[in-house]
Amino acid sequence: MVSTMRKYNGVGLAAPQIGVNLRLIVIETPLESCNNNSDANWEETQLLKLINPSIIEANSFEEMREGCLSLPGFITNVERANAVTARATDMSGTQIQIPATGLLAQALQHEIDHLDGILIQDRIDGIVNMTKLDPPWLTNKTSEIPERR
């Protein structure tokens, strides 16, 4: 899962996205909290491998720019909590709690949504409200994200 996530430049991946019916996610984010991918320092990262994760607390909701490996080339704005506490089992079988803010909080919510059968287009008014990005090899510009209705 980690190699697939990295191959496609993802921040996270849920097992069901690759056809594995397990409540397992992997997430790799910068060690320091950031609010989006463009602010991130990817020199030093943390890699989480979580079994049966759940959000037990969520605070400070705001719209965040988000994409998904299941919908390559599309982005949208999704309302997410900027601060969460998650509970999961790590790969050694230990129950852990993860306080998270910024990109890590967003990734936890996004990947746990996948485990619950929820995609980002389910959190907005459908895929019609997503923005198609031009591949970087065709242009250096990206499309603007439309304001949420």
Q: Kindly report the oligomeric state of this protein.
A: single chain
Mean pLDDT, to the nearest integer, reads 86
Largest sheet: 6 strands, antiparallel
Order of helices and strands: HEEEEEHE
Fourth-level CATH superfamily? Peptide deformylase
Strand content: 35-45%
Low-confidence stretches: 145-149
Helix content: 10-25%
In whole angstroms, how far apart are the ends?
A: 35 Å
Broad structural category: mainly beta
Q: Give me the Rg, rounded.
A: 15 Å
**SS summary, helix count:** 2
Q: Can you tell me about this structure?
A:
- The chain is mainly beta and 149 residues long.
- The protein has a single domain, classed as Peptide Deformylase.
- Helices cover 13% and strands 39% of the residues.
- Strands 1, 2, 3, 4, 5 and 6 form a six-stranded antiparallel beta sheet that branches.
- Strand 3 and strand 4 form a beta hairpin.
- Mean pLDDT is 86; it is low at 145-149.
